[in-house]
Amino acid sequence: MMDKWTARNGKMIINILVNSPKGSLFLESVDASDSSTDSTKMYSLFKNTIDSIGAENIVQVVTDNASENVKAGDMMSACYPHIYLTPCAAHSVNLIFGDIFKERPFSTVFNQAIRVHFYIVQRPLLLNMMKRFTKQRSLVKPAKTRFATAFLTLARMYEQKSNLKKLFVSDEYTSSAYGREARGRESADIILSPSFWNNVVHALKIDGPLVKVLRMVDGEQRPPMGYLYEAIYRAKEVIQASFSDQRKYKRVFEIIDKRWDSKLHSPLHAAALVLNPELFYDNEERILGDEPLWNGYYECIEKLIPEESVQDKITEQFSIYRNAEQLFGKKHGH
């Protein structure tokens, strides 16, 4: 995994980590400050790292979606045809959030929430007043990424909906200087507006399931590869079930599908789902009927294992796995 970040002193650092079933291992850091990280240089970094580890030991190289990485990945594929370039799942899910927050009503409601929040926190006396109403709870709950923070901020505000309304209609507020100034009146109008809260609920129903996906791919409890395909499917299922009107989520699904199809989805994810017994046996009928999933599975087998005799053996042994025979034990529910 190539993790690019900027240090506090302005240096561009690329951390190289190796992930295996035993966990993640930090390999080295490369200072990329003195040279532009164009595709040729990134390919050189890919190649040197692959050669030092051994190409036969590598299944994928994980990077963000920067164009130089994609181009370097194409060069890598020509040299190492069995190795996948996989976009970082957390980065890709964050891009989905970024796209969603550009759309109305999500952009509007988040900007309104932020305006109210900043108005309050920039005025210590008003902040203290609010905390008396919210029982010392703040409105922002920091998270690893700004989009997760945005979601959690809306969730926290919704949690405090009645207390915030009480604050803005209280004599203490309306008779204060805050209640008379323009931004104070604007904040009160937002909090007392039914459409604001309707949009908050709309945003939470959309973003809640996606935040779960983000937490899964950004967590360290288990490798997300075998769960991502299913997680995206389930997130969409939950979102769809939350609305009776398809128009409420149609654009969001277009955003998810575009990112999933063009960037995030990989045959590796398909194979990982098929070969994940925790998910396969409980969803066997749906998985077996998912043609794109199987196309990805077979594509992955062909890419990783060029020898046809080994491919044939895998196909033969798959029925043992499917029927939960031998080492795979009894099928769930039987």
UniProtKB/TrEMBL annotation:
Q: Which SUPFAM superfamilies match?
A: Ribonuclease H-like
Residue intervals of the DUF659 domain = 1-114
Q: Which domain of life is it from?
A: Eukaryota
Stated name of the protein: Uncharacterized protein LOC104245683
Q: Which organism is it from?
A: Nicotiana sylvestris
Corresponding gene?
A: LOC104245683
